[in-house]
Amino acid sequence: MPSIKRARVEKRIQTLVSQILLRELRDPRLGFLTVTRVELARDYREAKVFVSVMGDDAQKRTSLRALEDSRGYVQQRIAPRLAIRSLPALRFELDRAVDKSLRMAEILHQIDRERKEREEAKSDGKQGAGDGQEERGLETKPTPGEEEEGEEEEGEDGGG
User: Fold this and answer.
1) Is 86 a member of any domain?
2) 138: buried, middle or exposed (CB in 10 Å: 19+, 13-18, 0-12)?
3) Count of structural domains, the chain
4) Is residue 35 a contact partner of residue 50, using CB atoms and an 8 Å limit?
5) Which of helix, strand or coil describes residue 29?
6) Is 116 contained in some domain?
7) How far is CA 94 from CA 37, 148, 155, in A?
8) 10-23, pLDDT tens digit by residue?
9) How far apart are CA 68 and CA 91, in angstroms?
10) Residue 148 falls within a domain, yes or no?
11) How far apart are CA 71 and CA 21, in angstroms?
C-alpha cells in the first residue's frame, strides 16, 4: 500500500503533467490523450505516467513517441512546481486498462442485445407454445418431493 505522501506526489505529478500537455505542448503528433494515473517508485527516482490515447494503434504509437520526445521539457516544467528533493524521471506508458474496459463494455452490450433479441423472439411466439425448455434440450423433471409422493402411493396401494 503506497504511503500517503507518495500518493499525494503521484496525484500532483498527474495534475501537473496533464496541465502541461493540455496548455503548453503544441506537438501536432499528440492525439487526444488523457493522463490516467501515475505510479511513483518507492525511492522516488522514477514515475510511470500512464496515458490513454483515443485512436488506432498507429495514433497511439505516434502520441507515445511525441511524449517521449518531450519528456525533458515536461520534467523541466514540473520541477519548480513539485516540492520534493529530487525530481523523478518520467516514463510514459500506454494505459491498457482503458482499452480493456472499453472492450468489456462492448461485450456486455453485445450480450444485452442478444438477450433482448431472444426475449423478443420468445414474446413473438417464435419458440412455440411451451416455455422453450424443450427446444434448448432441457427436460422438465418432477421435483424430488413430487417423485417420492408418487412412489409412496403406489407402494401403499399394492402392499395392502
Assistant:
1) yes
2) exposed
3) 1
4) yes
5) coil
6) no
7) 10, 63, 73
8) 999 999 999 999 99
9) 8
10) no
11) 11
One DSSP character per residue, 53-119 reads E-S-HHHHHHHHHHHHHTHHHHHHHHGGGS-SSSPPEEEEEE-HHHHHHHHHHHHHHHHHHHHHHHH
Torsions phi, psi for 69 (to 5 deg): -65, -30
67: containing domain? 4-95
Q: What is the pLDDT of residues 75-131, one digit of tens each?
A: 999 999 988 888 999 999 999 887 788 889 999 999 999 999 999 888 887 545 555
What pLDDT was estimated at residue 20? Answer: 94
We report the CATH number of the domain holding residue 68 as 3.30.300.20
Is residue 25 within 8 Å of residue 76, measured between CB atoms? no
The mean per-residue pLDDT over the stretch 54-77 comes to: 93
Cell of 115: 438477450
Amino acid at 80: P
| pLDDT band for position 150 (cuts 50, 70, 90) | very low
Q: Rounded to whole angstroms, how far apart are CA atoms 82 and 34?
A: 20
CA 104 to chain centre: 6
- Report yes or no on 107 lying in a domain: no
